[in-house]
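Handout, section B. The chain below has 307 residues.
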Amino acid sequence: MIYSKKLAIIAALLGFSAVVDAAPGVDIVANETPIHTVKNADAVAKIPAGFKFVEPGTLTVAISLLGSGPPFGLYARDNKTVIGSESDIARLVADGLGLKLKLVPTSWEDWPLGVSSGKYDAAIYNITVTNERKTRFDFATYRQDTLGFYVKSDSKITAITSAPDIAGKKIIVDSGTNQEAVLLAWDKENRAKGLAPLQPVYVTDKAASTLAIQSGRADATFGPNVSGAYQAKLTGKTRLVGIVPGGWPKTANIAVTLKKGNGLAAAVQASLNGAIANGSYLQVLERWAESDEKIAHSEINPPGLGD
């Protein structure tokens, strides 16, 4: 069930019933119970000598909240505890490093400056590794990145898989994301061939996105596939018409994002690899229906979008 009047209103705006609490196979109530992992001696040893965390003994992590929605971030029944796949991954990282965890829900626009300035030790915000971002941040990967095009269930659109498919269409996309970069690159190709231009649609939240799709003001949404798949299963009002790798035309991964050159990436990578090895990592992905995007091991600053 939805846990409060506030969430019930959000549920209605998103297009699902207040008596439905999760996509099939996802038990929100059970997922309130934290998944922990053991302290990882190798990871702890890789923390740079004298490293100053934002708060001593604590890993302070910027994460998303209801703007991203499940499976990434939402409130538990107490309306204050953050749950979701991103908070679960943050907990595994902190546990492996032998640290307490402090989660700071914030906006997408805030995390880059927050990480660079030292306001946060890390950001876990469905952030894709890109060539441009690697000039400013270090990354330790934890999930594959796939992007999905979703349309209204009764839409006449059957497939969006390459540049010509977006010509002349109105597509919802978040500003400053790798999915926007993919769309703009495709649109540039189309314009060079004389095809109709793309009309990007920028909205403020999931409710506005849902309203735009269901009312016909937009033809499709383009974003993280696990999020689109979750909502499609939950509501039955949208369907998948195409998947694109997040590093188009190459693959890319989602990663824990850290201040460039501060030396913490190796420790975070070791913590993630420990969780992968002992199975707690897969537990997290499976309970949020993200296991299709699992990785075999974490990498530091691998190739990404633009490489």
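Note. The CA atoms of residues 149 and 222 lie 5 Å apart. Compare this with the example in section A.
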